[in-house]
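Record copied across here:
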Amino acid sequence: MKVSLFITCVSDIVFADVGKNTVELLERLGCEVDFPAAQTCCGQPAYNSGYLEEAKKAMKQMMKAFKDSEYVVGPSGSCVGMLREYPEIFKGDPEWEEAAIDLANKTYEVTQFIVDVLGVTDVGSTFKGRVTYHPSCHMTRILGVKDAPTKLLKNIEGVDFVELPVKEDCCGFGGTFAVKNPEISQEMVKEKSRHVSETEAEYLVGGDMGCLMNIGGRMRREGKNVKVMHITEILNTHGKEQGGEIA
């Protein structure tokens, strides 16, 4: 099965290991992975800030970049969710509507792809420790990915999985929301940090790097010793040492 990696801006610029783990994980599951170099930002920051025409420029470039891809897989539920919204954004556009639908239909968040397309719920990894999972808002509410990440985590040998209290609450990041409403954002992430502490988990895992940076930064400032990891790292511990931290 041929898969094109949608790296996302944050992974490309800040957390390259997330992209590396995504590729290694997909290849271990039998996928042939390529990387269309023409890809760029999905357009979400501009779109969420109300700059529709500016966002469309990036979106059109993405449609061109992945035109010939069989499947498009990314390590961010938020960014993949943005691509899934392209058909509505370009609805009625005679030049771009078909391309928008095509890209949306073949694009998946990595855990969604593994569970729903590959039909795998146990990736054969091993990881020791008490783990909790933060389900990001865009991933669950926009993309609709709710069960795939926890199915995979619970099947990792050695993982002591514990549910995060009030897990559906936003961490306060929300992309540009944290920039425009810092006081509200700080209170939200403070509450999220408290809920993570209640689990007594050693590791906080998530599928969106922006959320993990936000929560991890807050807990680090509070002096809490909780390691924050992207889900691809914990899923890709097959035959190698565990342990990094995203934030």
